[in-house]
Amino acid sequence: MKYIDLHAHTTASDGTLTPRELVAYAAEKGLAAVAITDHDTVEGAARSGELEREYGVEVVPGIEISAEYFGYGIHILGYFIDPASPAMARVLDWVLGERERRNRQIIELMRADGVNVSAAALRERWPGAVIGRPHLAAALVENGLCASVQESFDRFLSEGKKYYRPRTYLPLDTAFECIRAAGGKAVFAHPLQYGMGERALLALTKRLVDAGCVGMECLYSGYTPEQSEYLRGIARRFGLCVTGGSDFHGGRKPHIDLGSGTGELAVPYELLERLRGW
Ligand code: AMP
Ligand code: ZN
Ligand code: FE
Ligand code: FE
């Protein structure tokens, strides 16, 4: 049986492996395919073709975009996207500008407290990365204010905490249009991560399907067989293709491994074939 991982981050966003290291690691793990799905950027995915040839692992160019739904930041995965799409680039430029605006606010708050951090230092520390809260959390650790990135989030960067600032997410329909314009297929990421009850989850799923969603990430790190089965039921009901991935971030989330997640994950290759034909 061949296995795959359709959800992985690289140094282009908040993963710790470069695209090359990620694909090499996928090869080492014996995976048949891996998707590069960085937050709000295709810089890593743009290397897909070259890395696929080099390592003999199928590499799916993807993205993970945050979009707004009643105040929630919903994550939408895009697969088989053209990283050179100008329409997608225009949308991502807006997202990056909005992230920079929010980063500046957070940096100002931290500096007012004497934290040694600046936009320039972050860019130098994480070259080419879409800078977000994980990097700001790391800065708190490096300043000795927190022992871990998790503690930084818990004490300072989670919603409602001192250094939290909201960012304006893309309108839901814009996120889908941009994936479609880049020739991609849109998938609802980790549906159980939003803390929604069943009614809300079903309403959201319907809204996403209406916007052009074709798949649901039913297999995900930490989801029990019962939870995955529950999600498969919803996917079936809405005519969605079932997908799966670990949300690998390398050393930033060391408890999650590529392919196997927290140990239980196994995504058969067949799901990629089905998504391709959906
Ligand atoms: P941003 O897109 O800049 O708001 O950062 C979001 C990322 O921060 C997510 O993809 C997670 O990897 C991470 N994150 C968000 N909330 C937490 C939390 N409470 N604990 C640890 N990591 C978090
Ligand atoms: Zn991430
Ligand atoms: Fe996500
Ligand atoms: Fe992710």
Architecture overview:
The chain is of the alpha/beta class. The protein is globular. Strands 1, 2, 3, 4, 5, 6, 7, 8 and 9 form a nine-stranded mixed sheet that branches. Helix content is 42%, strand content 18%. The mean pLDDT is 97. The chain contains ten helices and nine strands. α8 (198-211) links the parallel β6 (185-188) and β7. It has helices spanning 19-28, 48-55, 86-112, 119-125, 133-142, 149-157, 172-181, 198-211, 225-237, 270-277, and strands at 3-8, 33-36, 58-69, 72-79, 170-171, 185-188, 215-220, 241-245, 267-268. Bound molecules: adenosine monophosphate (AMP), zinc ion (ZN) and fe (iii) ion (2 copies). One fe (iii) ion (FE) is lined by residues 7, 9, 64, 247. The site of one fe (iii) ion has 4 residues, from loops.
Throw out a few tags for this protein:
alpha/beta, binds adenosine monophosphate, binds fe (iii) ion, nine-stranded mixed sheet, binds zinc ion, 278 residues
**N-to-C SSE string, H for helix and E for strand:** EHEHEEHHHHEHEHEHEEH
Oligomer class: single chain
Strand content: 15-25%
Distance between the termini: 22 Å
Question: Which residues sit in consecutive blocks of at least 5 with pLDDT less than 50?
Answer: none
Class computed from helices, strands and strand pairing:
alpha/beta
Instruction: From the alpha carbons, calculate the radius of gyration and give it in angstroms.
Output: 18 Å
Helix content bin: 40-55%
Write down how many β-strands occur, each being a DSSP E stretch of 2 or more residues: 9
Quote the average pLDDT.
97
Shape: globular
Major sheet, described briefly?
9 strands, mixed
Give the number of helices. 10
Ions, cofactors and other ligands present here are: adenosine monophosphate, zinc ion, fe (iii) ion
